[in-house]
Amino acid sequence: MTQLKCASRTLDLSRVQVMGILNVTPDSFSDGGHLYRASKLSVEQALVHAAAMLSDGASMIDVGGESTRPGAAPVSVQEELDRVIPVIERLTAELDVVVSVDTSAPEVMREAAAAGAGLINDVRSLAREGALEAVAKTDLPVCLMHMQGVSPATMQLAPSYEDILAEVSDFLSRQVARCVTAGIARERIVLDPGFGFGKTLEHNLTLLRRMNELDALGLPLLVGTSRKSMIGQALGREVDSRLAGSLATVALAVERGGRIIRVHDVAATVDVVRMTEAVLYGCEQEQA
Ligand code: 7PJ
Q: How far is the CA of 224 from the centre of ligand 1 (A)?
């Protein structure tokens, strides 16, 4: 399975695709909120940032309006809608890119799909009431992510695993079964080990080292390590000095089967992805 049908666009997952992160929150995870310091979101600014990521080589833009930073304040559904829907409408109308929506709220999933989104990305794996049904009613693919603990607010309290790979794999395969039962075909599902979600540094490092074990699930893997605290902790770096560390994880993730790489720094990531692919597979595809 190498094609992912995302509304009006199709992604070729025989090559690794880069997903640019577009946070439309005033307190976003890792960009320090520079882009959206004003509480009122600027759709124009979002469009400019997304267009830059596209010209840097991203084929997907992940729009998120709810901060999943540990301990972040919850956002009302209305506020999330107000933040993300105008941006999704603008991006799908003006840019040749797959727009994904990073949300756990069924209302946001429905409205994002109507606004032209091409993928639903839910860090809570459709756990919220109504989310499974909302996705089933669209034709869109969905990314199911592993998180230990019920929510980002509490996930980092005491992460613990006997065998993290086995547990992440079991969790994801149960989520796939649940989706298939609800009418979401396997061809629509992307999986994500959930770096930083209910995991210590050692857990995150092990998860990346052994990520190829998730190949057995037989579905494309999305990987998000960009600027995360696992890099901060391993290197002793603040969030604005984590690019090189993030890129090291990208090369390893591509080598271990990652098909979609979710990042803030698109240009540098695209080079690392293409170089890693060239080493792994040769460069015929570059000359095509
Ligand atoms: C992830 C995400 C991730 C997926 C965030 C951040 C935190 N969605 N949304 N995977 N992380 N699928 O970007 O640092 O790892 S928000």
A: 6
